[in-house]
Amino acid sequence: MSAVPAAIVKAIGQLGDRAVVRVAVKSIAVTLAVFAAAGTGLYVGLAALAQDYALDTRWAGVAAVILVPLGMWFTFRIVALAVLQFFADDVVSAVEARHYPVMAASARPLPLPGEIAAAARGLRRALGYNLLALPVAAVLVFTAIGPAAVFLAVNAVLLGRELTDMAWLRHCNGDPRGNPVPLAERILLGAVVAGMMLVPFVNFLAPLIGAAAGTHLVLGRTGARA
After folding, report:
1. CA quadruple 111, 167, 14, 31: dihedral positive or negative?
2. The predicted structure's pLDDT at residue 216
3. pTM
4. Which end of the chain has the least Cβ crowding within 10 Å, N or C?
5. CA separation (Å) from 110 to 4, 93, 166, 193?
6. Cα–Cα distance measured from residue 100 to residue 220, given in angstroms and rounded to the nearest whole number
7. Helical segments of 16-174, H only
8. d(CA 197, CA 65)
9. Burial of 56 from C-beta contacts in 10 A (0-12 / 13-18 / 19+)
């Protein structure tokens, strides 16, 4: 039986912890700031373009209001996951402290350069996976659920790996290739979190829940093997 449902329930149960709340506030604030900066830049660029072609600059505001929410809808998973990478150690250490205190003593937190590198790798993979999926989704655009199914499948694989690697990198003893969570469980976790990211307001907490659940999956198996 998959351990994913139990891991997600435990993760949701820890959302009220102070450490997790602090990470939630920071990651949501940074994510919103990224989209706000992108929206401002888009408006400034469109306004400049409108002036170059002697158009009414008010249309730049209208276009920005339409395009920014669409951009958030399509790129939220990528941005939120990249932002969470910078705070991943805080989430993982909170789960360790509450549920795996013995293993917390042997954890090796990532230094800032390591967090930046992990975030960059995750961002590259997210962009690469989604760009590769784009032509397939475009072919299926006239079907009812084809594009959504393609992106859900791609992001299930992507998120499952990223959310479990956040914990595994603290316990891998320098070898990140040996993630102990079976592929099927990683994909199931990724699919659940990808689905949560489609729900307004829940999407802000989905990466945190996924990171905490991924920690349970990793440490549950790592502890059993120790």
Report:
1. positive
2. 95
3. 0.84
4. N
5. 25, 11, 10, 24
6. 9
7. 18-52, 58-99, 101-104, 112-139, 146-168
8. 21
9. exposed
**76-78-79 Cα angle (round to 5):** 65
Give the model's confidence band at 223: pLDDT under 50 very low, under 70 low, under 90 confident, else very high.
low
How many domains would you assign to the chain?
A: 1
Compute how many other C-beta atoms are within 10 angstroms of the C-beta atom of residue 223: 14
Domain extent, residue 100, equals: 4-225
**In this structure, what are the phi and psi dihedrals at residue 109, rounded to the nearest 5 degrees?**
-60, 145
Q: Residue 219: CB partners within 8 Å, gap ≥ 6?
A: 95, 96, 99, 100, 103, 167, 171
Q: Are 126 and 158 in contact (CB under 8 A)?
A: yes
